[in-house]
Structures are given as structure tokens and as C-alpha cells.
Amino acid sequence: MTAENQRADMQGAHCDVPADLWRACPDCNQLLYARDLEANLWVCDKCGSHFRLSVWQRLQVTVDADSFTVWDGDLPLTDPLDFPDYLGKAQKAREKTGMSEAALTGRATLDGIPLAIGLMDLSFIGGSMGWGVGELVTRLMERAIDQHLPVVIFCASGGARMQESLISLMQMAKTSGAAGRLRAAGLPYISVLTHPTYGGVTASFAFLGDFIIAEQGAAMGFAGPRVVEVTGLRMPPGVQTAEFQYEHGMIDMLLPRREIRPALHTMLRWCML
Which residues are registered as beta bridge partners of 9? Predict the structure, then answer.
């Protein structure tokens, strides 16, 4: 075989390698075999960096297989301010994520324990909270009361949705009121803070859980670092991290991803005895 033929064969073999076979770690830049990464719950085995998860991946690593049933998956899109190109952007987000909004809610089981679960996804307009997210979270808690279910919400958000202005800010009060009714009904609410959790979500239902768990390495706070920089203020390093919040008593547990499901199982079993 000539050298040219060998090169052609090598190039052909290279083209057969799937593009998604390897993933680069965003922190240490190590190449990770995709199947090994999935088996490790999308956590880098070199530096411990936690990859962002879609809601579907989060369900896969959290609840029993085939146990999830979607609630309110047909929620309509709204544009209260007639904001330019907002509906078009939201429709593209729906097509990209397979979600109707930046939150997905429903019923599932975790090791056989039934629960109401909500999950947020940064891929849908930055996980921002507008009317749709506020309505989904509120309905989730209200259905949990009706069905006597504990609630678990995985939070991930850039904050309130600017395209809905005051309508989005009103969702802070609405979801907080729903969390209060859930507590009055004697049902547990576990909030799991993932990377990142900012703004109106932080200032409402995310920090109202009976138990607040933070995933290792998550960023959290009210105003994000870029917003703070605009004011000219300087933030001390590490303030908006799960580790800092845990050290200063703002959250109850700081866990790596692999320990979150077992912790949820233990808390749910104790609370629902």
C-alpha cells in the first residue's frame, strides 16, 4: 500500500469517529470519554467539575426509570408587554429543549417513594423566571398539597425574565405564597440549588425549602457577578459559591452530585413516615 493510500485510509477512519465520543472538561480541559462521563453522572473524574445537566439528564440520575409523568406540559406562551421578538425566542427555546418553559414539573418516584418534582434548565432563555415558570412552580406545590406529596425542586436560573418586567417579579410572591401553603399543609419541600441559581429564583422559592441542598461547585446569589460589576463594586472572591454559602449557614447540605439522590431518599423516607 502506498503512503497516499495509507493516509486516505487513516482520514476515512477518522471521519467514522462520532463527534460526541469525547467531551472536554470546562475547568481542566481534559478530554473525557462520553460513556465514562455519563457513568460518572457527568462529573469530571480528573478535577471533579460538575457538568451542567439538562432536565432529562437530571431526571435520569435522580428518579426511578420511567416513573416521571409531566404536569402542565401544554402551558401557553405569553407576551404581556409585546416585547420585540420575545415569542419567537421562546418558541425556539421550546424546539431546542423539548420543554414548554424553563421549568419542567411532574410526579415521579425515587426508590419507590412518590414525590412532586420540578426541574429548571438554563438552556431555556437562561432558566429565567417569567409567568410560565412561576405558574408551573405554583401549580406543582398546589397539586402536591392535593395529592399529599413531598416536593423536590432542582433550581437553576439566571433570575427574573426581563421581557416580562413586573409580571416576572410578581412570580416571586406567587411562588413564595405557594411554598407557605405547602408548609402549612405539613408537607416537606426540598430545594436543590444547582449551577447557577441567581436573581428572583434565589430570592423566592429556591431558598424557602425545609431542606436546602447545594450541588458542589454551584454558583448562587441575588445579583450575578456581571450585574455587580456594572455598579463598580468589587465582590470578595468566592462569595457567590455554594461552598461559601454553606460555611456561613445559608444552606443545609453541600453535596457532590453522586450523593444527592441518596440524601433525597433518606430525607423523603424520614419526612413521609
Answer: none
Q: Which helix (H) or strand (E) holds 34?
A: helix 34-39
Q: Higher model confidence: residue 162 or residue 5?
A: 162
What are 178-196's pLDDT values in tens digits?
A: 999 999 999 999 999 999 9
Which H or E run includes 105? strand 103-110
126 HSE (CA, 13 A, CB side): 15
Residue-wise pLDDT tens digits, 56-79: 999 999 999 999 999 999 899 889
Which amino acid, residue 238? G
Residues of the chain with CATH 3.90.226.10: 52-271
- The domain 52-271: what is its CATH number? 3.90.226.10
Distance (Å, rounded) from C-alpha 105 to C-alpha 118? 4
Strand pairing report for 103-110 and 69-71: antiparallel
Amino acid at 85: D
pTM (2 d.p.): 0.89
How far is it, in rounded angstroms, from Cα 139 to Cα 72?
8
The CA angle 191-143-272, to the nearest 5 degrees, is 60
Hey, what's the cell of 272?
A: 413521609
> What is the distance between the alpha carbons of residues 241 and 196, in angstroms, rounded to a whole number?
9
